[in-house]
Amino acid sequence: MPEKNALRIVMIAAEAAPYAKVGGLGDVIGALPQALEKLGAKVAVIIPSYGNAADEPVLAEPCHDVPGFDVTLGDITEYASVFQTSMPESGVAVYLIGSRRYFERGGVYDDPLTGEGYSDNMERYVFFMKAAIELMLRLPHSFDIVHCHDSQAALIPGLIRENYGGEEKLARARTIFTIHNIAYQGNYPAEALDLAGISPHNFYPFSPFEFWGQVNFMKAGIALADEITTVSPTYAEEIQETELGFGLESVLRERSANLHGIINGIDYNEWNPETDPFIAARFSSTKLSGKAVCKREVLEYFNLGHGRDLKRVPLIGIISRLANQKGFDLIAEAIPAIVEMDLLLVILGTGQQYYNDLVSGFAACYPEKIAARLAFDNPLAHKIEAGCDMFLMPSRYEPCGLSQLYSLRYGTIPIVHRKGGLADTVIPYGGNSGTGFSFTEYSADALTQSIGEALSVYSDPPAWKKLMMRAMAEDWSWETSAGRYMDLYQKKE
Ligand code: ADP
Hints:
Elements: E1 8-12, H1 24-38, E2 42-48, E3 61-62, E4 69-73, E5 76-86, E6 93-98, H2 100-103, H3 121-138, E7 145-149, H4 156-164, H5 168-171, E8 174-179, E9 187-188, H6 191-196, E10 215-216, H7 217-224, E11 227-230, H8 233-238, H9 242-245, H10 249-254, E12 259-261, H11 289-302, E13 315-322, H12 328-340, E14 344-351, H13 353-365, E15 370-374, H14 378-387, E16 390-393, H15 403-409, E17 413-417, H16 420-425, E18 437-439, H17 444-458, H18 461-473, H19 478-489
Parallel strand pairs: 1-2, 1-7, 2-6, 7-8, 8-11, 11-12, 13-14, 13-16, 14-15, 16-17, 17-18
Antiparallel strand pairs: 3-5, 4-5, 5-6, 9-10
The protein binds adenosine-5'-diphosphate.
Residues 23-24, 27, 319-321, 348-350, 376-378, 381, 400-403 line the site of adenosine-5'-diphosphate.
């Protein structure tokens, strides 16, 4: 596509790696824009500037085109500073919106001291959304596509319709809303609309802005965006059903003609065992010897596996937010049976205090078999992906899941609950086919059985090696999925 006719897209989200990352959303916003750029689009990203934007790794400068400006939220006026940088080795412009009051603090969504969400998240993200729109109006060009991600950007389609429809810069823009996890909806008192400056006339039962007497940011995004996407085809089906729609299933069913499931890709520049700078030795499917070195490094780090023949004892890894969704209740129930098996388990995670205690309890009860690090540690995440034999992801539900895709690339065989994106990306083992192990019923027995099945194949090295080869040969790069987004952006109404 010639540069001057390039499709102009702006992505608005609460996270983008490497600037801010809590989970998969950060990975997606850090990689999808560059994949779209390779397909000829011009992409900009708007995120909050958490902490001090002059710090590494952001290296942002004050924005050349747009000086800071005031944003009003009801009676509050808060100054939005604007910083600018571009994504590594690309032309993707990144605009970071700073605020003393809302973003200069230690955490992204949650207070690191308590592991709970900040009490002013409603204000913080209404501020962010209004500032993002004001920034778009001040930039020297207009956008064809305004792509909003998750609840922290979900009011934007509604705000544009209600308050900015007459602005020439936004008049032609189509809005896309992507659901990365429908469990986090942004459910707030009606006051949120006053802060956003949306007329109270819009707040009545069953309106896009009303949900059981509250304002629900995600509902507004689903109801008012031109197109809605979510991050895997199976999850797109699941969220239209009662259990996993978390109350928004009927709103989604009403928009099913505009709801699309597009699986996430992964960034092979960052997650590639042949080039990964964080791991002890590089390896590939044709030269696997480095993987054993990586395994030794992980075991040394966690002080596990002394006196064991490392070729024989399977090492299972978990890297996860420690949250309800991720299946730790199931692991807790299954743990007595799991530790009876000949295996070692390492866990890297951080999150809710309840789960922090639970995971440290596993390690304290079974120090010979289980070790944990309760932190957010990206280099260690790479080492675990590279050094483990298997990766455990028993999520109760999983919109897409990225960790299992990294695992496939590193020949670390995933064991997963067959839900959402896990069902779409892990092909169950079947002798000469399959890339991992999965279980359907969400039960401790089914989980234990699946681990047992994996261990029995592991004890047959030629079969295991073939399984690793198949997993490593899979291609989950962004190219195909970015193409699907491009088709959607260019869809005729
Ligand atoms: P979710 O977005 O629900 O957290 P995903 O599997 O989509 O789950 O993405 C998780 C991402 O966050 C992966 O890149 C994973 O490596 C990373 N991650 C999760 N917890 C940690 C941690 N404690 N330390 C480092 N990286 C982590």
